[in-house]
């Protein structure tokens, strides 16, 4: 399931960078246009609030690759952005030094991911690490004298001095690479994740001193040795930087995976170690909470630690709250943590957050079909400020004094851009300071999504986005692309995607319907909870009511409606196939078909155990059977809805067997069906030319059975 807050992997562009070709009359978006956009990510404001650094990715479609560089722009928008680095590789994750004079970043320019430093005034970047196991996600200590970063190491060498451990890691990696036998041996679960094998490595935090006058590389030290990850192995529990220095710069606080049962437990804990630590035992700051804790952040005055936490063990989609505890400069807690968001009038689950000065916290949260920007005064519980900026906000950073902020914001009509505004949301009206794709967007006719509210199962209100095609006229009858989102604890939101982009569907001549049924985030935790154990129940009924609503729209041709979805959306399309013949065609991308085989082949089994109340043996077996499409496979032959199956070899979240099972059942019963397999892709299709092929297959299937355009 794509639980990475699903579906909007937003990245995008910047100002001053023009694309070739003069603007002409607006035209519909083409698939190839998706690769022309510059993609922006990771906006970081300088300590003094005057500058914003961010990464910009350019897709080389013909080369089937991409490159990323760092750019800097003035936060007041009065001077144009300038490129800080120039590489055909990938420069990313910029982090300002505390004095604002230089930027720390990770880069693959040496052939693998290592850390680099560049002066803000320009000049050549210099490499500061050379690890066999690579380096990423670096941060500065408050005093600017230390750098901490992430490296996936073999734990058996992690207690050795760096030179010895690095040599041992390199030797083992070389042996694996050069060995003609490619067998893998596993002794525990979670041996693979998303689209790659873990290879018995652990993600550790290493620390190195930094001296701006030194030209050479300094050996780091492993501050989290042992056979345990000091970083979230699942993106589900990751939000911004997942580790931080303490105010005294002498310790680290970080989010660690469970000591035991990491494949079926969500008990992420905040741990604390000295930067000189050599012990494999780490101090646990949150031992009493058996659910997830993460994203630690100290207040600018060093007096409080804020972090995200859930309450229900095993439930990855539980509500996230910001907890607050008084602390000492070394990060030790001086009192009990209390929730700063649990009693808000709005039922919000916190996404990313950061301090905005010593007395305010800014955060994002899914809210009614968008990702909103909010602010609290944590020492005045219940006070909440919502910013007027709409659509999809992410990646907030704030200057040291809290007076200025930077963020990324996107919508269904434009990819993410860098915005800047006052750090106090009561005063802030963030403005676009990058204008990256402005000229290119002028070429395109992109519709504005409309929000509709209708009655779902049991009379519960349900929100749905509707996007009309370019050239839409209400006098004609239009076909519909009925899209089901992933998760299931996700949502269709007013944001931008390079995978499932509603504008690309609308541009083909379809009205695009995107309902947010039971399980969708942003409509209160109760609404989220009602999908668990009931995938084919109220959620299915909600979607049928959404389809009824769409059919009754005066401009819709109810004889031309096709349905498509990915991950959970793929499951629901599989469920449609055995429950209704109302759709003229179906498209299932990496969808669950057999709950029992899904449980024993996926990697994050805590998800299935929560959704079904335990493993498939014993008391929970009925849950694995009740709504599993494979148990009703005979209905495929009854409804005979033409079906396109897409499934990929490297999808370890919803493994390839789920796709092959339903394709076999369809073929055996003579149902028109087609299966597309990408052997080099995981849960998503990311490579540019693969993405182009994916879109061609999907749209060709739709147009074969649901002809496009108004009639």
Q: Determine the strand fraction and express it as a percent band.
A: 25-35%
- What structural class do helix, strand and pairing data support? alpha+beta
- CATH architectural grouping of the domain at 450-705: 3-Layer(aba) Sandwich
Give the CATH topology of the domain at 450-705: Rossmann fold
Radius of gyration: 25 Å
Count of DSSP helices?
12
Corresponding CATH superfamily of the domain at 450-705? Alpha/Beta hydrolase fold, catalytic domain
Helix content: 10-25%
Q: What is the CATH top level name of the domain at 450-705?
A: Alpha Beta
Mean pLDDT metric? 94
Strand runs, count: 38
Low-confidence stretches: 1-23
Sketch the major β-sheet.
8 strands, mixed
Explain the overall architecture.
With 711 residues, the protein is α+β, with helices and mostly antiparallel strands. It has a domain at 450-705: Rossmann fold. It contains 12 helices and 38 strands. Strand 15 (243-245) and strand 16 form a beta hairpin. The longest helix has 18 residues, at 688-705. The relative contact order is 0.11. Residues 1-23 have low confidence and may be disordered.
Task: Set down the secondary structure blueprint.
Blueprint: E1 39-45, E2 51-60, E3 65-74, E4 82-83, E5 91-96, E6 102-107, E7 114-119, E8 126-127, E9 136-140, E10 146-153, H1 162-178, E11 192-193, E12 196-197, E13 202-209, E14 221-222, E15 243-245, E16 251-256, E17 269-274, E18 283-284, E19 293-298, E20 304-309, E21 321-326, E22 338-339, E23 350-355, E24 361-366, E25 371-376, E26 384-386, E27 392-398, E28 404-411, E29 414-422, E30 431-432, H2 438-441, E31 450-455, E32 461-467, E33 478-484, H3 502-507, E34 511-516, H4 525-529, H5 538-551, E35 556-566, H6 568-577, E36 585-589, H7 595-601, H8 605-612, H9 621-626, H10 634-639, E37 643-648, H11 656-668, E38 673-678, H12 688-705
Parallel strand pairs: 33-34, 33-35, 35-36, 36-37, 37-38
Antiparallel strand pairs: 1-2, 2-3, 3-4, 5-6, 6-7, 7-8, 9-10, 10-13, 11-12, 13-14, 15-16, 16-17, 17-18, 19-20, 20-21, 21-22, 23-24, 24-25, 25-26, 27-28, 28-29, 29-30, 31-32, 32-34
């Amino acid at each position: 399931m794509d639980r990475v807050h699903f579906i909007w992997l937003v990245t995008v562009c910047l100002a001053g960078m023009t694309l070739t070709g003069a603007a002409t009359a607006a035209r519909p978006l083409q698939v190839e246009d998706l690769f022309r956009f510059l993609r922006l990510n990771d906006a970081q404001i300088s300590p003094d609030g005057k500058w914003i650094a961010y990464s910009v990715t350019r897709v080389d479609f013909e080369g089937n690759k991409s490159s990323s560089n760092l750019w800097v722009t003035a936060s007041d928008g009065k001077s144009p952005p300038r490129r800080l680095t120039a590489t055909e590789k990938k420069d990313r994750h910029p982090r300002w030094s505390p004095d604002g004079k230089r930027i720390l970043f990770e880069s693959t320019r040496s052939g693998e991911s290592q850390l680099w430093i560049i002066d803000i005034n320009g000049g050549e970047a210099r490499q500061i690490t050379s690890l066999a196991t690579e380096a990423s996600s670096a941060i500065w200590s408050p005093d600017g004298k230390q750098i901490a970063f992430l490296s996936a190491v073999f734990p058996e060498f992690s207690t050795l001095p760096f030179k010895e451990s690095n040599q041992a890691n390199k030797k083992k990696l070389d042996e694996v690479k050069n060995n003609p036998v490619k067998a893998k041996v596993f002794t525990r679960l979670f041996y693979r994740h998303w689209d790659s094998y873990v290879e018995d490595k652990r993600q550790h935090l290493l620390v190195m001193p930094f001296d701006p006058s030194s030209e050479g590389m300094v050996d780091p030290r492993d501050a989290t040795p042992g056979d345990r990850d000091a970083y979230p192995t699942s993106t589900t529990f990751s939000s911004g930087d997942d580790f931080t220095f303490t105010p005294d710069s002498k310790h680290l606080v970080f989010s660690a995976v469970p000591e035991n049962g990491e494949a079926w437990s969500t008990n992420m804990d905040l741990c604390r170690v000295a930067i000189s630590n050599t012990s494999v035992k780490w101090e646990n700051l949150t031992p009493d909470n058996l659910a997830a804790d993460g994203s630690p952040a100290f207040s600018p005055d060093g007096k409080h630690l804020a972090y995200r936490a859930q309450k229900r063990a095993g439930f990855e989609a539980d509500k996230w709250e910001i907890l607050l505890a008084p602390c000492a400069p070394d990060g030790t807690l001086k009192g009990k943590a209390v929730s700063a968001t649990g009693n808000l009038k709005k039922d919000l689950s916190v996404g990313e957050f950061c301090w905005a000065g010593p007395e305010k916290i800014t955060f994002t949260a899914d809210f009614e079909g968008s990702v909103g920007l909010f602010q609290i005064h944590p020492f005045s519980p219940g006070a909440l400020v919502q910013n007027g900026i709409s659509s999809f906000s992410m990646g907030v950073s704030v200057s040291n004094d809290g007076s200025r902020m930077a963020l990324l914001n996107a919508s269904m009509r434009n990819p993410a851009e860098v915005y800047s505004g006052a750090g106090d949301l009561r005063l802030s009206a963030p403005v676009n300071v990058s204008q990256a794709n402005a000229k290119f967007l002028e070429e395109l006719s992109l519709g504005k999504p409309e929000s509709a509210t209708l009655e779902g199962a049991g009379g519960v209100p349900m929100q749905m986005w509707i996007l009309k095609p370019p050239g839409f006229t209400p006098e004609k009858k239009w076909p519909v692309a009925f899209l089901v989102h992933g998760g299931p604890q996700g949502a269709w939101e007013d944001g931008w995607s390079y995978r499932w982009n509603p504008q690309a569907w609308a541009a083909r001549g379809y009205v695009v319907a995107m309902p947010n049924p039971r399980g969708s985030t942003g409509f209160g935790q109760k609404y989220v909870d009602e999908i668990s154990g009931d995938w084919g129940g109220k959620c299915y009924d909600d979607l049928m009511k959404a389809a009824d609503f769409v059919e009754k729209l005066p401009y819709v041709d109810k004889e031309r409606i096709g349905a498509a979805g990915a991950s959970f959306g793929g499951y629901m399309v599989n469920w449609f196939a055995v429950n209704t013949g109302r759709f003229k065609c179906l498209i299932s991308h990496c969808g669950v078909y057999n709950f029992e085989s899904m449980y024993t082949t996926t990697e994050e089994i805590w998800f299935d155990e929560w959704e079904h109340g335990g493993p498939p043996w014993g008391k929970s077996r009925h849950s694995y059977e009740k709504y599993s499409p494979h148990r009703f496979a005979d209905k495929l032959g009854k409804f005979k809805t033409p079906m396109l199956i897409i499934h990929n070899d490297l999808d370890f979240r919803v493994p390839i067997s789920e796709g092959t099972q339903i394709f076999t059942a369809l073929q055996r019963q003579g149902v028109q069906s087609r299966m597309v397999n990408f052997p080099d892709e995981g849960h998503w299709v990311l490579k540019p030319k693969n993405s182009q092929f994916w879109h061609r297959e999907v749209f060709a299937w739709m147009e074969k059975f649901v002809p496009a355009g108004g009639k």
